[in-house]
Amino acid sequence: xxxxxxxxxxxxxxxxxxxxxxxxxxxxxxxxxxxxxxxxxxxxxxxxxxxxxxxxxxxxxxxxxxxxxxxxxxxxxxxxxxxxxxxxxxxxxxxxxxxxxxxxxxxxxxxxxxxxxxxxxxxxxxxxxxxxxxxxxxxxxxxxxxxxxxxxxxxxxxxxxxxxxxxxxxxxx
Length: 173
Fold this sequence. Notes:
By secondary structure, the chain is of the alpha+beta class. 17% of the residues lie in helices and 47% in strands.
C-alpha cells in the first residue's frame, strides 16, 4: 500500500510538471495576442503591443511611451536607434544586445537584483551582451542591434521619453 501511494504521488507530480511545461509557451503566446508586427526593413520576427502614450506638459516636444516588444525565436532588430531615452526591462527569454556605435549615446546596464549599473566602458563596440529575465538597461541615442538568443519568445517592457512625432525605432544605414 505504501509503495502504491508513492507511485501515485510520483505520477501526479510528473503529470503536473509536464502540464506546467506545456502551459508556459501558451502563456507566452497569449501575451502576444493582438500584437502588431513591426514592419521595418531592419526588423525580422518582431511584434509589439502599445500599452500607453502621452504628451506630458512638463516635457514640451516629447512623448512618453510604454510598450511590450516581442522577439520570436530567430527574431532580430538589425542596426537601429531611438529618438530619446528608453528603459528596457527583459521580462522573459534571452536577449542579445550589440552596441554598434556608442559615439552619439549612452547606456547603463543593471542585472537582476543589482542596484549599481555595470560600466559600459568595459564593453566594446560590436560585443554582444546577454540579458536575462529581470535584467534591464537605460539607453539613449546609440546605434545598436538586438536579437532573440533562445528557442522561446523574448518579451521586453519598454518605457521612454522620445521626440514627439518621431517613430520609436529608426533603422540605421
